[in-house]
Write a structure and sequence with these properties.
This protein has helices at residues 19-30, 42-54, 69-83, 106-134, 156-176, 202-209, 218-228, 247-250; strands at 10-13, 34-37, 58-61, 88-91, 138-143, 181-188, 191-192, 216-217, 240-243. It is of the alpha/beta class and 255 residues long. The strands form two sheets. Strands 3-2-1-4-5-6-9 form a seven-stranded parallel beta sheet, sandwiched between helices.
Length: 255
């Protein structure tokens, strides 16, 4: 088993049924944390948690929609009632809805805003309220994207949410630091996940245009996430780490 850096710590990770969120849960659990794994898909949530438990991790499913503020508050309350003090919250839940700016409709726009911005904001709020009550500090991590830094065709709404999430991480330094809570964000670039591997050209395309010669793996992203919520990063706050193999330095379009 890996070093138990998160022994006796409770973490909540949203949008974690697969992909980056799942790997963050997996790594936290294998490093000793008790993890509450959330996803909107109940079957996926249960299956993901079971897989982590089979590897020896302490992981518990909590399915639900993180665009619902009351659900977020209930999840934090239930987790702390069952497992004790909250130490880590990772706001990973989000949705990507591509669309031409000139034809983008109201419903998909507000769906992206409600989950990406609302879900992130209110998980940070609920986690911070709990951590403030505990008076022992904690770590909050938000999920941005390289699309918050560089324009990407048909992702105007999504990109603006990711840029806003990074501003939220900076702004909340003022609110959270007096309570010894640090808050940061990570901004993944092209990453190999169940979703992106459904595109037969994805890995080849991003390997060609990424300076490091390949897209990220979920393990690459999870490694940075675990560092930022660990004790080693307690004096790092308000920052965003871009994990993209150098793509944003040159920014060639995949199209």
């Amino acid at each position: 088993m890996p070093e138990q850096k998160f022994h006796r710590k409770l973490a909540i990770v949203t949008g974690a049924g697969q992909g980056i969120g799942y790997e963050i849960c997996r790594q936290l659990a294998l490093h000793g944390a008790t993890v509450v794994l959330n996803d909107i898909d109940e079957t996926l949530t249960a299956r993901a948690s079971q897989k982590i438990r089979k590897e020896g991790g302490d992981c518990h499913p909590h399915a639900g929609d993180c665009s619902n503020v009351e659900f977020i508050r209930e999840m934090v309350q239930t987790a702390t009632t069952r497992f004790g003090e909250l130490h880590v919250a990772v706001a990973n839940a989000g949705i990507t809805l591509f669309g031409d700016f000139f034809n983008y409709e109201r419903d998909p726009f507000f769906k992206v805003m409600e989950l990406n911005l609302g879900g992130t904001f209110f998980l940070a709020q609920a986690a911070a309220l709990q951590m403030r009550k505990q008076e022992k500090g904690g770590s909050i991590l938000l999920m941005s994207s390289v699309t918050g830094h560089q324009a990407h065709k048909n992702l105007a709404a999504y990109g603006m949410t990711k840029a806003a999430i990074e501003m939220l991480a900076r702004n909340l330094v003022v609110e959270l630091s007096p309570h010894h809570i640090n808050i940061n964000a990570i901004a993944p670039g092209a990453t190999l996940t169940e979703r992106t591997l459904g595109d037969a050209e994805y890995e080849r395309t991003w390997s060609r245009i990424t300076p490091m010669g390949r897209p990220a793996t979920v393990e690459d992203i999870a490694a940075a996430a675990l560092f930022l919520v660990s004790e080693e990063a307690r004096h790092i706050t308000g920052q965003t780490i871009i994990i993209d193999g150098g793509w944003t330095t040159v920014s060639p379009s995949p199209y």
